[in-house]
Amino acid sequence: MGFLNGLFRKRERSSDLARERLLTVLVHDRVKLTPDVMEQMKAELSAVIAKYVPNVDPDTIEVTLARGDSIDHLKAEVPLRRNR
Amino acid sequence: MGRVITVTSGKGGVGKTTTTANLGTALAMGGARVAVVDADIGLRNLDIVMGLENRIVFDLVDVIEGRARLKQALIKDKRFPDLCLLPAAQTRDKDAVSHDDMVALTNQLRAEFDYVLIDSPAGIESGFRNAIAGADEVLIVTTPEVSAVRDADRIIGLTEAFEKGHPRLVLNRVKTRMMKAGEMMSIEDVLQILAIDLVGVVPDDEMIVTSTNRGEVAVMDKSSRAGKAFVDIARRVRGEQVPFMALDEGGGVFDRLFGMFGRRPRGSER
Ligand SMILES: Nc1ncnc2c1ncn2[C@@H]1O[C@H](COP(=O)(O)OP(=O)(O)O)[C@@H](O)[C@H]1O
Ligand SMILES: [Mg+2]
Fold first, then answer.
1. Domains assigned to chain B
2. ipTM over the 0.95 cut-off
3. pLDDT tens track for B54-97
4. Do B146 and A15 count as a contact with CB atoms less than 8 A apart?
5. Residue B171 in this model has a pLDDT that exceeds 90
6. Among B99, B110, B133, B229, which is least packed, fewest CB within 10 Å?
7. What is the DSSP letter of B184?
8. What's the first-to-final CA gap in chain A, in angstroms?
9. Contact flag A26-B150 (C-beta cutoff 8 Å)
10. Cα(B48)–Cα(B36) distance, integer angstroms
11. Run of H or E residues at A74
């Protein structure tokens, strides 16, 4: 049914888009993490994690900046392989 | 001792010079002794906006380099005896002025005037840093557009990092019709995003162009909506509680604004 909702939904107001896009970009601006610094940090984090946790595939680690209601988060997701 | 207030923005062309000229004139019309200082070295502007461009003999750099005394360089606005302009140098660049020069200059002005308004250049470079060097208080100007608001956020962070207190916001060129249609960010949106206190909302007003053409500022024209908004800003700067006027008879835009927005702690900059 998703596509039906999509069909009938009003076009999103541009001011809402502006607000959302700004809030997202400002999370990055405020912590001063440019995309390449993020990549570098991710590589270093992956190396540290791989050192301590054997069943991690460093390529699957994801580091993201997420906007929250009251505080923002720097999130690292580290999938673990289920081998005993 | 007077107050030094720097008007700055981040993005260019959002209305710093217009705000400085109008706020300065409105404060002088209210009886205060006011000096407006053009700190946009190399891009002299405030003089022509105020209609004083034909009266310049010395400029800010002449004063700093000792070729003229401050009194000689200050241009008295004949329409308002308590209003003076210190023009920017036109043929020099921002490196002609240092942080300490600006602190010394603002201290000298503070002794003579009730309000010293500094019109800052755009950007986050030395021109901006010099413009806020002597400030007791900073006003940030933005329009409700994504690029201007993003740059304003950066400037707010820097202003706080330089320990200039919490700046206040002038939201300029507001188009009520677009806001109502949801095609321009609302006042609430901008305040919430920037976590900043509001000092005034100025409508987008074609009369700004006409009055600037004549070298008269909008506050001199009783029928100008933007002029009225700048008069209100002057009163708030003086410490009066002035309700935020509804931008049109539909009203309601400002009703919920008072005291709604707390400040967000910021990480340190620099
Ligand atoms: N409220 C307004 N309504 C209409 N035009 C405006 C308004 N504020 C500023 N402007 C116009 O926008 C332009 C840039 O303003 P200016 O004050 O020179 O910006 P800045 O000093 O930040 O570069 C000018 O042409 C000015 O007349
Ligand atoms: Mg300017």
1. 3-239 (3.40.50.300)
2. no
3. 999 999 999 999 999 999 999 999 999 999 999 999 988 888 99
4. no
5. yes
6. B99
7. S
8. 42
9. yes
10. 13
11. strand A73-77
